[in-house]
Design a protein that fits this description.
Distance between the termini of chain A: 45 Å
Largest sheet of chain B: 6 strands, antiparallel
Structural class of chain A: alpha+beta
Strand content of chain A: 25-35%
CATH superfamily of chain B: RNA polymerase II/Efflux pump adaptor protein, barrel-sandwich hybrid domain
Radius of gyration of chain A: 20 Å
Number of helices of chain B: 3
Strand content of chain B: 35-45%
Shape of chain B: globular
Oligomer: heterodimer
Helix content of chain B: 10-25%
Strand order of the largest sheet of chain A: 10-11-12-9-3-13
Radius of gyration of chain B: 13 Å
CATH topology of chain B: OB fold (Dihydrolipoamide Acetyltransferase, E2P)
Helix content of chain A: 10-25%
C-alpha cells in the first residue's frame, strides 16, 4: 500500500496473518481476498463465510423521541418497529435522492443504526443535526462488526451463542458470545442466511478466531462480498444508489411503509410521493448479458434502435450464475422483464436482456 | 521454448523463428485474480507495438493486453473462451493469448529479459 494514513479495523492484524490481499477501501485498509474471489464466493453459498465489516458505522439513537426523530430523515417505518425488529431504510435529501442506505433496529429504548463506511461521518452529522432535542445520537466507534453468512452460519453460531438459530430474518437480539455482550441480527448482504454481529472491540479478535476455527468457516474478502451482493440484487451505495437516485427509481419502494407514503414527513417526501403516484422515469433493473463478456459500471445501455436508454451501475462476473451479471438504470419503458437491450463495451454493442432481480434466489431464514 | 521477453505492461513474448507467442506474466495474473473472460483478436489483424490487441477480464476489472511488437496475428488461443482460468493456472504456458508475426526483430531488443523484468516487478511491490 502506498500513501496516506489508512484506518484499520479491530481485525486488521488477523487479516494480515491470514495472508489477505489488503486494499484501501473507504479510508480503511481492508481485505479484498484471501484465496480468491470465486472460491470465497462459492464457499459462502455452500458453507459459511466470515466477513469483517467493522469499517461500517454503528450508532445508537436514544431518548423518548428517537424513533419519531429518525422518521423525519428516512421514509421507513421506524415508530412502528417492534422490539427486536430491524428495518432497511434510506437517509434522503430534499430531491428525494439517497444520502445513504442503512439498517435501523429497535433494541430496548434505543434505535441501533448501521450505515456505510464511506458515508458514516456525513450520515452521523446529518442525523445529529436533524433529530432535534428529543433524541440523542451516540456513535459506537469502539465496536467491531462481523458478518457470518451462508447456509452453515446458523449451525456454527449456534455452537457459541444461545438462541441464535431460532432468530428470524431481520430480527436482532442482545446475545452473549464468548462472554462478550454482542448485538446479533439475522441479516446480511449476500442473499444467504446469516448474521451480522456487533462486538465490543476488545472481544472482536477472539470471536472471529473462534468462528474461523470451525471447519465450515472461511474468511471472505470484500471482493466476494461484492459479487455475492450483486447476484443477490442488493444495491451498493455510491454505485447503484446515490444522491441523484431516489428509492422509487432504485426499486426500494418495498422499504417505504404505507403510512409513510401517505403521511410523508421525511426529507424529500414530495418528490418521492410524486414518483410513487406517477411512476419514475427510470428504474433500476437486472441486466443479463447474452454472451460471456462481463459489462462494467458506467457502460451505456441502448435500445434496439441504437438510442441511449440508461447506464450500468454494477456489473461483473457472477460465480454462482457462472456468467456475467449486471444491474443499472433504464428508462421505464425499457424496464419490463425480457426487454432486449444492447450494452456498449469497448465500442461494441453486446446484446443483453432486462431481467428480474435477484440473479440468485435469496435464502433468508423466515422461520 | 525460446527466451521470453517482457514489457512494462506485463506481457511476455517468446519468439520462435519470426513468430512470437504472447501472454501475460505470472505477476500479472496474480494481480488480476480470477480471470473470467478473455477476448482475443481476429487472425489476420495487424497491430503496432503498444496497441490494444486483447482484453483480459478478472472478477474485478477489465484490462488491456498490448501488442509487444509490430506484427500480424497468425493464431489465437481459442481455448481461453471456455477456460479463461487457464491464464491463472498456466500464465507462461497454456494461458497464452495470441501468436504474432514479428515485423521488426530489433523491437525485441528493447524489451526486458527475465532478470530485468524480475527486478522491475520487485520495485513495484
Amino acid at each position: 500500500m502506498s500513501g496516506g494514513a489508512s484506518r484499520t479495523t479491530h481485525l486488521h492484524e488477523l487479516h494480515v496473518s491470514l495472508g489477505a490481499k489488503m486494499v484501501p477501501f473507504a479510508g480503511y485498509d481492508m481485505p479484498v481476498q484471501y484465496t480468491g474471489i470465486i472460491a470465497e464466493h462459492r464457499h459462502t453459498r455452500s458453507g459459511a463465510g466470515l466477513f469483517d465489516v467493522g469499517h461500517m458505522g454503528q450508532g445508537r439513537l436514544t431518548g423518548a423521541g428517537a424513533a419519531a426523530a429518525l422518521e423525519t430523515l428516512v421514509p421507513g417505518d421506524i415508530t412502528g418497529l417492534a422490539e427486536g425488529r430491524m428495518r432497511y431504510t434510506q437517509l434522503t435529501n430534499e430531491h428525494g435522492g439517497i444520502l445513504d442506505d442503512l439498517m435501523a433496529s429497535k433494541i430496548g429504548d434505543a434505535i441501533f443504526l448501521v450505515v456505510n463506511a464511506s458515508r458514516k461521518e456525513s450520515d452521523f452529522a446529518h442525523i445529529a443535526g436533524g433529530i432535534g432535542s428529543d433524541a440523542a445520537l451516540e456513535i459506537l466507534a469502539d465496536r467491531a462488526l462481523i458478518a457470518l453468512q451462508g447456509p452453515k452460519a446458523a449451525a456454527v453460531l449456534g455452537r457459541h451463542a444461545q438462541g441464535v438459530a431460532e432468530m428470524k430474518f431481520m430480527t436482532i437480539s442482545a446475545v452473549d458470545v464468548l462472554g462478550a455482550e454482542c448485538l446479533v441480527s439475522r441479516s446480511g448482504y449476500t442473499g444467504e442466511d446469516g448474521y451480522e454481529i456487533s462486538i465490543p472491540g476488545e472481544s472482536a479478535v477472539e470471536i472471529a478466531q473462534t468462528l474461523l476455527a470451525e471447519s465450515e468457516v472461511e474468511p471472505i474478502g470484500l471482493g466476494a462480498r461484492d459479487t455475492l451482493r450483486l447476484e443477490a440484487g442488493l444495491c451498493l451505495y455510491g454505485s447503484d444508489i446515490d444522491e441523484t437516485t431516489t428509492p422509487v427509481e432504485a426499486g426500494l419502494t418495498w422499504s417505504i411503509a404505507k403510512r409513510r407514503r401517505k403521511e410523508g414527513g421525511f426529507v424529500g417526501a414530495p418528490v418521492i410521493q410524486q414518483q410513487l403516484a406517477d411512476g419514475p422515469e427510470r428504474r433500476r433493473v437486472g441486466l443479463k448479458p447474452d454472451g460471456k463478456a462481463p459489462v462494467r459500471a458506467h457502460a451505456e445501455v441502448r435500445g434496439k434502435l441504437g438510442e441511449s436508454v440508461g447506464e450500468v451501475t454494477s456489473g461483473g462476473f457472477g460465480p454462482t450464475v457462472d456468467g456475467p451479471v449486471a444491474m443499472g438504470y433504464v428508462k421505464s419503458e425499457h424496464a419490463e422483464e425480457g426487454t432486449p437491450v444492447d450494452i456498449m463495451v469497448r465500442g461494441k454493442p453486446l446484446p443483453a436482456t432486462v431481467v428480474k432481480l435477484p440473479f440468485v434466489e435469496q435464502r433468508y431464514f423466515k422461520g | 521454448m525460446a527466451d521470453m521477453k517482457f514489457t512494462k505492461e506485463h506481457e511476455w513474448i517468446a519468439v520462435d523463428g519470426d513468430v512470437g507467442t504472447v501472454g501475460i506474466s505470472e505477476y500479472a495474473q496474480e494481480q488480476l485474480g480470477d480471470v473470467v473472460f478473455v477476448e482475443v483478436p481476429d487472425v489476420g489483424k495487424s497491430f503496432n507495438r503498444g496497441e490494444e490487441a486483447a482484453v483480459v477480464e478478472s472478477v474485478k476489472a477489465a484490462s488491456e493486453v498490448f501488442a509487444p511488437v509490430d506484427g500480424e496475428i497468425v493464431e489465437v488461443n481459442s481455448g481461453l473462451e471456455d477456460a479463461p482460468g487457464t491464464v491463472n493456472e498456466d500464465a507462461f504456458g497454456g494461458g497464452w493469448f495470441f501468436k504474432i508475426k514479428v515485423n521488426d526483430a530489433s523491437q525485441l531488443d528493447e524489451l526486458m529479459d527475465k532478470a530485468a523484468y524480475d527486478a522491475y516487478i520487485a520495485e513495484l511491490d
